[in-house]
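#struct-pred
JK: can someone run the complex with iron/sulfur cluster? inputs below
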Amino acid sequence: MEAECGKKAVIYRDYEGRALCEEHFIRSVDKKVKRTIRQNNLVEYQDTIAVGVSGGKDSGVLLYLLKKYFEERDDIKLKALAIDEGIKGYRDESLDEIKSLANTLDVPLTIASFENAYGYSLDRIMEIKEERGKELGIEGVTSCTFCGVLRRDILNQKARDLEADKLAIGHNLDDEVQAIMMNYMKGDYQRMARLGPKTYKVPSENFVPRIKPLRQIPERETTLYSQLKDMDVAIDECPYVSGSFRFEVRDFINEMEDRHPTTKYSILSNFDKLLPLLREKFYGKVEEVSPCERCGEPSSGDLCKKCELLESLED
Ligand code: SF4
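RT: done, structure tokens with the ligand placed:
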């Protein structure tokens, strides 16, 4: 296929109705990410940015781009942060890709694990659920709920330990749109109000705000970008991936996008119009968030969600 400029095309963007060559594609992704950063003030003077890396294409592209944009800025520090959830045959292997990427880009890397932080790997938690889920009342709690809650907590703690002003995560357009739709379908508008390019900053000094520079880039394009840049990224899927609500929503949105290109951008831009109203409604009057009674991390109830889940595993 030929691109608009006459060179060989590397992608046809249905949502724009045009084909791009490698050079124009790379330039276009760079431009979108820079614009997301600039328009939302995601990176500011003298920021230390912890970058969550998973070994996958999204976080690999994120670290690569942030390094490229801020390499010449002495006031901006980047620190890579990886979490080992303890998923045998998956995460242990992707840690090699993470180390190699951080090394190539010359970004210092910190690795934290569920096992060290909480005393359980995700595999162990799933074994407990399998053996005693009914008795412990966690029969209906999915692997992704445990994983997501614990990972959010540990990323926040470690980013704070690294004295980071912000935590950059590799959420792409697909991730953001899935999160919007999942919260919408569950009717959880309060959680929805925390989404956006810079997550709502809970008024607590213990909370490191998250930024999402890739939220305007479709997943298909982060994959292509990582391939064109020859990045060594993990391609295996997590063994717990099937059966999660997120993936049912993903399939549904992808089907809609196939039939109606621009669906994803449309969901995102309409959500961005609603976001200020949602934040005003749910967080307009919140002055301070009280710490969790058990761990001291920011929490909306007496116990944070992580402590609730960990307590449910105890006898
Ligand atoms: Fe964790 Fe679920 Fe992602 Fe696997 S698919 S890494 S369990 S959130």
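RT: quick notes.
The longest strand covers residues 77-84.
The CA atoms of residues 6 and 271 lie 36 Å apart.
JK: thanks, will look after standup
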